[in-house]
Structures
1.
Amino acid sequence: MILLFLGPPGSGKGTQAKLMVKKLKAEYFESGDILREKAQEKNALGQEIDQIIHQEGKYVPDEMMKKIVSGWLTENKLEQGIIFDGFPRTLEQYRDLQKILTEKGKEIEKVVYLKVSKQESVRRLSARRICPQCDLEFNLITKPPKKDELCDQCQRKLVQRKDDSPEIIKKRLETYYQLTKPLVEFVRQEGILEEVDGERPIKVIHQEIVNRLGL
Ligand SMILES: [Zn+2]
């Protein structure tokens, strides 16, 4: 089964996508990880990606993403299915991906959208903390440290990333909705959208997705 997971920052989309990867024993296309991996390769494409994501902090252009996905689809065994996470995030990228998959006799069968209110996204993202010493990540709501706001490993005081300040969180959410709304509307009309309430416990959400997909 080929699935796409969508949801605003803080929706728990990554957590749910990973649970589904495990359940289906599917391949996992997580765009952030794949790009970071590619950026380390010592070739022209790797250097270009490194420049874009690490030095300029921008998004990789659609044409380049197409090449990366095509390559990835050729390199991986896909019999057990694929879970896409973080890509495609716009309607244009979605169309590109469907074209590539069609050439391989495949298609995205369902799009799972994790719905959380803007308020809840802000609340969850504002609760993220990181250890300045060992980079361990915590969330005061969903993954709290054992003691106060101290790192479980080295007991240092946890800090907030600059990216998680309220103004930047709001901007990230706005960008997300702007880019992704046309894609969500498109797949809704195609009849392959499964909207799931993301403001519930992880296991409950996972079970609902499993049921909705008839697994
Ligand atoms: Zn630490």
2.
Amino acid sequence: MRAPQSGADQVGGERLRGRIAAELARARSRTALLTEAVDDDDLMRQHSPLMSPLVWDLAHVGNQEELWLVRDVGGREPVRCDIDELYDAFKQPRRDRPALPLLPPAEARAYLSTVRDKVHDLLDTVRFTDRPLVADGFAFGMIVQHEQQHDETMLATHQLRSGPAVLHAPPPPEPRLAVGGEVLVPAGEFTMGTDTDPWALDNERPAHRVDLPAYVIDAAPVTNGAYQAFIDDGGYSDPRWWSAAGWEHRVREQLVAPMHWRRDGAGWAYRRFGRWDPVRADEPVVHVCWYEAQAYAAWAGKRLPTEAEWEKAARWDPVTGRSRRYPWGDEDPTEAYANLDQRHLRPAPVGAYPAGASPLGVHQLIGDVWEWTSSTFDGHPGFTAFPYREYSEVFFGDDYRVLRGGSFGTDRSACRGTFRNWDYPIRRQIFSGFRCARDAGPGESGR
Ligand SMILES: [Fe+2]
């Protein structure tokens, strides 16, 4: 027999139900925006071998929602088990997806809406028990984040498609503060990862203590202006700055500048979402691969931060000694704190979010551009795969490098001070930038 629910449980459950419904709706309206901005022909087409046709992402989002919520959490009958294989990201490599017998757009949309109806039905009655998949609405949160992550992938596909602009957004705020230079992070322990954020994914857990020597980190992401100095100084033609693998990649792919840049008189122009703009000097550089970031850092006499260094700079509060959820505190992101949620279609200039700085004065860690770190992707000490190995564990190892902090195209539901992203060191179709770090020099440390 079920234990009766207390009044407080009921209130908490209702609040959680409301939050889940709002987050599901927000994700779906973004998916609709990204897939209704182009015609059916465009949705079915592959814009780059790196990406799926948008219509694959669309039905895949619905299929994951069906698998986890309708079938697993709800224990309901399948809506369409005949398409599971088609939309399994592990069975279908991206380059092969356009040749699959994909659901045409109208059918994909109808499928998504049937699944969503069943999820709303389930949400009305589900009890948030201690079962790990439903405690604190975890599986719903995972599906919200999954859809938002695919929306960011779809936004990256939009950046790769040719043709006139179809996405529109106001520009990000202008700088409100002059931000530059470096910040010293004193030696000592801090708490990395989380045990308490209810929708944190398996790779963000568990919380654990990490002791770091003193280091210095850039107060802001590397800007286009700084990056252009590296280009102008012959950075792309000097193997001294590049790792052996990075140099080989640079030569093979003939990289001479960030992706989507072209020469424009004496300067550079940058194509974003179908429009050419002059490269703006005070904006964080975006669309660089890990090898480019590493070469820039070497040229600047620095290095990339480790993942732990990035997270300590973002979360550690020297006054309380505790780690915050975000650089500015524990409060969810708002427009005052960070450039997230695809509100703008570009990174904001450095100094645009003074309210979002960390206690030590490190700016724009969240939003704007994903930041490459020097770290390979691995489990935190004590890692347990949940709810399945394919979420993160199968990606652990030397092949990937960790990116942190989210971009202008990352939704706030899929971005935290602990959130971890990973990709191959050659990838730059993602909204990736970086900042530099270095060991503290003599006289700079101090515990
Ligand atoms: Fe997926």
